[in-house]
Amino acid sequence: MFLLPPETAHNLAVMALKCSKPLQPLLRRQCLVRDERLHVKLGALSFPNPVGLAAGFDKNVEVLEGLQSLGFGFLEAGTLTPKSQPGNMKPRIFRFPEQEALVNRMGFNNQGIHAAAKKMNGRMKIPVPVGFNIGKCRGTPLEKAVGDYRNCVDVLFDWADFFVVNISSPNTPGLRHLQGPVYLEPLLQALREKVDALTLSKKCLHKPLLFVKISPDEHLDEVVSEIAIKTRIDGIVAVNTTRSRDGLPDTAPEEGGMSGRLLKTRSTETIRRLYQSTKGQLPIIGAGGVFSAEDAYEKILAGASLVEVYTGFIYKGYTLARDINRGLVKLLKRDGFQSVQEAVGKE
Ligand SMILES: Cc1cc2nc3c(=O)[nH]c(=O)nc-3n(C[C@H](O)[C@H](O)[C@H](O)COP(=O)(O)O)c2cc1C
Fold first, then answer.
1. Which of 183, 238, 294, 323: CA 20 to 30 A from 33?
2. Is the distance from CB of 27 to CB of 69 less than 8 angstroms?
3. What is the predicted pLDDT for the residue at 155?
4. How do residues 98-108 score in pLDDT, each as one tens digit?
């Protein structure tokens, strides 16, 4: 795969997952780790293990079944926007194998929420929680962004176990301004009301959880956590990619977000600060540089209830979720924890 350009390799991997149906029972046997200690409960949602796939891999909800068979405890699809978008010009993903990092400037390329809803309609329920990462269209001004996010919740509600409000991608101009209090409080308030109203009007047995995804760069985590608690959203995903290029060669592209190994410390520090500033009241999903059970455990001890991988999945391959889960069971046993949940924030 590494002989191919990154986006071609990505498309090939998605295609392989699409064709993986006959192999899925075998993959499940190989990759699913069943252990009570790994179970995590957040609100009404039950996660068989704490290792999820981060947003950006399955942008168009094409391969949820194949991904679940690789042992992930939950899946985050998207980012999805109200209308389909082509994203930025190619090339827009760059590998740095020595640093086990990626830089991407995809720019929310996706087929839009209506195409996603069509794909979800009539599909068998995936046996792990599935969430949608939602964003605004590139052309929507910040003042009208609330409408875009509300529209996404409306159209995808029936299939969502959780939503992730993406206000932190570095590749949609101005998007990160939505992290500031002027925009953030009304945005999260409106989405809280939307989810509550839809749950009531549809007489739903389930109520999707509402998360907000933050960036590691602006150090707005205290503001975000205050607003998150005030608006009663259900948790925070920390973190998106960074604009920093620390550790990369000078040839690295200027535009785009960096992910992978070099993001790990920055991400764990953000999780730690969030856990402290919220006094552990808000569940945190930790993302950024998780390549091993030790990396995942470090984030759990710093305050994450769940973790997500993307770049690690690219560099380590399809058994990563299994390897992390197996390792986590050993680490929990070693330190005398009965469950992942017991270890959260116990640094
Ligand atoms: C190629 C690529 C595309 C991504 N696309 C999205 C996206 O559409 N929405 C989003 O919220 N995050 C996106 N991300 C960020 C990841 O979800 C994750 O937050 C980040 O990469 C840090 O985790 P990692 O170090 O395990 O990759 C993308 C990352 C990569 C590498």
1. 238
2. yes
3. 97
4. 999 999 999 99
User: Long-range pairs for 229-233 at CB < 8 Å and ≥24 separation?
Assistant: 229/278, 229/281, 229/282, 230/185, 231/185, 231/188, 231/189, 231/192, 232/192, 233/165, 233/188, 233/191, 233/192
Instruction: Report the domain count for the chain.
Output: 1
Please report, for the domain that includes residue 269, its CATH number: 3.20.20.70
Q: Evaluate whether residue 19 is within a structural domain.
A: yes
Give a yes or no: residue 31 inside a domain.
yes
Which atom of ligand 1 sits closest to the CA of residue 104?
Answer: 1
Query: Quick one: tokens of 197?
Result: 């109203």
Q: Name the residue of 240, 248, 268, 315 to mutate for ligand 1: max ligand atoms within 8 A of Cβ.
A: 240
Bond preceding residue 231 cis, omega within 30 of 0: no
Closest ligand 1 atom to residue 56 Cα is 5
Helix ranges (H only) for 278-343 are 293-302, 311-316, 320-334, 340-343
Nearest residue (CA) to ligand 1, atom 2:
56
| Cα 48 to averaged position of ligand 1 atoms, centre (Å) | 23
Which residues have any ligand 1 atom within 6 Å of their CB?
54-56, 78-79, 93, 102, 104, 106, 133, 166, 169, 213, 240-241, 259-260, 263, 287-290, 309-312
Q: Whose CA is nearest to atom 13 of ligand 1?
A: 56
pLDDT reported for residue 96: 96
List of the chain residues with pLDDT < 70: none
Q: Look at residues 302, 340, 303, 342 and name the one whose alpha carbon lies nearest to residue 324.
A: 340
- The reported pLDDT for the residue numbered 204 is 78
> Looking at the domain assignment, is residue 1 inside a domain?
no
8 Å CB contact between 67 and 23 = no
Active-site entry in 168, 169, 215, 259 = 169
C-alpha 178: how far from its chain's center? 18
Q: Which domain holds residue 185?
A: 6-343
Centroid of ligand 1 to alpha carbon of 241 (angstroms): 6
